[in-house]
Here is the input.
Amino acid sequence: MKSFGRINQKRRTRTELLRAARDLAEGGRQPSVAEVADHAGISRATAYRYFSAPEEMIREAVLDAVANTITIEPPQAGARPETVGVQVQSLVGRIFDMVIDNEAMFRALLASTVTGEETAKRGGRRIGWLTDTLEPLRPHLPPGDFKKLVYALSLLTGIETIVVLKDVCGLDAADARETTLWAAKTLLAGLAVPQS
Here is the structure.
């Protein structure tokens, strides 16, 4: 598994590129990848590793702006496991709502990334949100288990969840949301975390 430090560095670089793309686009420009890299103070070679075409970068910047509506208030250090569980449930629910409200846009992004036509890797914002929210549980879990918990919950926080529950299982949005929250709660309930 990749180290969290390397994942965080990649996330920061991607965030800076997307912020620069939004800045330029909001100024009425259709920036190239090179212009965005220059504006962000990131090498052009690095920028092209993240985005090969300006259209995909601008689309991702729009999605990033939508995702920025998700704010988290990480639990206090030493928070009780049940408090962390409530905050995780809230986070999973807010992400579900954000994705369902922008479902067409997220489906378009998913389609473009699974066809192999674009080389950009998807954002992975959910990893940061979940890591921050779960942080008080880290001292109580083996390092590998903490990472697995973050990764398992990430399966419940994206367009992929909606595709499976709506398209494969035939659920409507309300039932899909209820099932997603139930899965998150069940996953957290299975942890062997000492109660305070």
